[in-house]
Amino acid sequence: MKSESNDDQLSSKQDARAKLRESFLKAVNSLHGESCSIFTYEQSKLTGTFSSWKPDGSEVLIHDMKTPANIVMTSALLRTPDILAIQFDNPVVLKI
């Protein structure tokens, strides 16, 4: 009996985590194509268009990225440990 209770509890926790993960991925997906500014730990501000976030959260893909030196890159893959914040130019309503 106790084993069944633990199994049910574990299953409920896994279901909750799966729903949270799915909601997070849908929210990130809805940010595709939004203009943003990226602030880095190097005290730099980059601008561009948000494209996607790697599912494991390790990298962000930005299109038409402009650097402080006025260099425009067609696309750039930024490591999340280098990013302090991402600010979207327009208010974003996440559809969860």
From TrEMBL:
<dbReference type="GO" id="GO:0034719">
    <property type="term" value="C:SMN-Sm protein complex"/>
</dbReference>
<dbReference type="GO" id="GO:0000387">
    <property type="term" value="P:spliceosomal snRNP assembly"/>
</dbReference>
<protein>
    <recommendedName>
        <fullName>Gem-associated protein 7</fullName>
    </recommendedName>
</protein>
<dbReference type="InterPro" id="IPR020338">
    <property type="entry name" value="SMN_gemin7"/>
</dbReference>
<dbReference type="Pfam" id="PF11095">
    <property type="entry name" value="Gemin7"/>
</dbReference>
